[in-house]
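[Solved] Which block belongs to which protein?

Original post:
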Amino acid sequence: MKPKFLLIIPLTVCLQSYSQQSFDSVLNKINPEKWSAAVEKKLSSLENKIIAKTERSIRKLQKQEAKLKKMLSAVDSVNAKNIFGEAQQKYAQLSKRLKSRVSFPDGRMSGEYLPYLDSLKGSLSFLNENNNFLSAAKSAKVSDALNVFNEFENKLHQADAIKEFIKERKQQFSDILNHYSSLPGKFTNALAKYNKETYYYSQQIREYKEIFRDPDKLLQKTLVALNKLPAFQQFMKEHSELAGLFTIPNSYASSLAISGLQTRDQVQQIIASRFGGNGSAGQIFSQQVQAAQSQLDRFKEKLNALGGGSGDIDMPNFKPNAQRTKTFFERLEFGTNMQSTKSNVVFPTTTDLSFMVGYRIDDKKIAGLGIGGKIGWGKDIHHIAVTGQGLNFRSFIDVKIKSSFYASGGFEYNYQKPFNELQQVYDLNEWQESGLLGVTKIVSIKNKVFKKTKLQLLWDFLSYKQIPKAEPIKFRVGYNF
């Protein structure tokens, strides 16, 4: 017995040494401290956005509920008290829970499955459980990131609870509208505003979740490295959200698991008797699958039109504005605009080069401002001279007509003289005014730089008052980034 026992000791030491070396090589590739800090920063930012958006939405919903309560009280004060009596308290309770530190009893997320979020949680949990391989600083950073992740998970859970409560309120208000015929028209208007706010809130939360549908480069690199560890693979099989959805019994693939199951011949006989036909069970099954697949494809098309198949579909009774859920900077578009003019008696050949910033008002309208300069190239190819020939300030608005065509309008100030000092352009009487109307065509080019090219044909209806008179028709080429 003693020789065998002595052989086990060095074998155990060797295995531990190999495990340590393997784990260390993975940690050198992913840098847990840096990665955990990046995760913590990203989740904290999104958590703050969820809280801010929820609080704003709750305030707006409470405001609309107050209007609804006032109008219903004039018709049925008793029912109004029952319906709206505890609503304000419920809103306050939901808002308080959103900002509180609440953990899940079972440690699992509710709602739709998000692969990114599952992988992120599994990676942090695995590193936290194996913190004996980490330094004290790295271990603390991983633990902090995991705590932030749990808080973020809590915020998503609370947001889902708020959405469920709002959904119930919407149904109650719809029932009121159908029950009372003497309600004023303002009740319908207030309910429409309530429904709009609930829709945009749901869309915003859904967009936050969409961020976690696909992993970023940092998580991909981390997962590739961790997946080389058998211990991590086993950990994800046992503790991931996906493992919880598809739990495999311990007796799977054992003789105990298959006892009592039908044989292949018995299954084929059942399929043939159930669906009919003279073909084999495989052919019958294939036909049924094809029929089901065509139905599924049609269903997926409808599902994508309603909400992308996210499990968070809320059909609005109005045409939604997709820009409402974007931040101010996400709604900005930057671009350039160029226009060349041939030389004449007064002006040399010039090119107006402007830089534009547009703000998307909604899905069909964009308005913005621009500033640029007028570059002179000389009279002809034999007399080339690059000179500054003026300045311009622009404003514009584009309204989508159909497909890639837009109706465009704008107002501009143009300084049409060469200048050496800024003091020369201070006199507004020296600036020409231009009023523009026309059509814009967006051309999609398979190029990262020029993927959104704008071709504009514009009429300057103020050109006839300009001295000297400028060309009334302008053709411009622009590029949006």
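(Second protein starts here: sequence line, then its structure tokens.)
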Amino acid sequence: MANPYSDDRRVADSLPTTWVDRAPRAIRPYLRLARYDRPVGFWLLALPCWFALAAANVGTGLGWGDLYYALLFAVGAVAMRGAGCTYNDIVDRDLDAQVARTADRPLAAGTVGLKSAWVFLTAQCLVGLAVLVQLPVPAILTALAALLLVAAYPFMKRITWWPQAWLGLTFNWGVPVAGATALGTPFAPQIVLLYVASLFWTVGYDTIYACQDKEDDALIGVKSSARALGAHVRTGVAISYAAAAVLAGAAGVFAGAGLMFALGFALFAAHLVWQAGGFDPEDGADCLKRFKANRTAGLLLVGAFMLGGL
């Protein structure tokens, strides 16, 4: 008898071709469950960690120890983004089956069984734990404080019109973790400002992303900032991005960044202006393109802080 969980389905907004499509067929659904065919999420989870590491070292520059932590945060981002997506799909499997863009996700489509998904989730969390225990104690304690945020996130779209704000609180927790790693505390002014800036950045880019699902979300009763803002969605994204830019700039000032930071920051701000000013909320392909472009926006801000001492 054929295994009902052996089939592989490409998800609608996957990259056209990736190494996932060439992986052994038996493991492809698990790779898709963890979103390895949609790598922008790994970047968006790692970048806030790198913001904070670079901002914490504006005056001294990044040493080999900082680069080691940057690598750890990259590995942790891959593991925990995959774990978060797996957990989210476990909770949302029935909703995902009713939305065109998500109907082919492995749990919604039945290409991965529920018990197998829990085992896979556990394995990814163990990788994240292996990364976590290599961090300083203040960073470990800061990271553990995020568990409630992570556990609650999949349910927010049923509770609030602003699940994007909860995602911002959760997805950018790497900022205080990296701050605690580099400075011994998550409460340094530049770290707090960066965390709030990153929150607004996430609200902006995830609102753009949510525009793809407005009609389906309305049919099944799922809430989002894109639906809440309605005809004013572009204004809402612009306000979120403006707040992100102002707060990130203030973080640079508190970090003691110099002229080269200002140049890199200007490029970051210009990228946000391009996104907010030009996206078409009725064009799903355009929304996806601008959402994915936030990898570049984030790298510009990392570069600004890395050059901040010049």
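Accepted answer:
You had them paired correctly. Confirming on the second one: Residues 153 and 166 are 7 Å apart (CA to CA).
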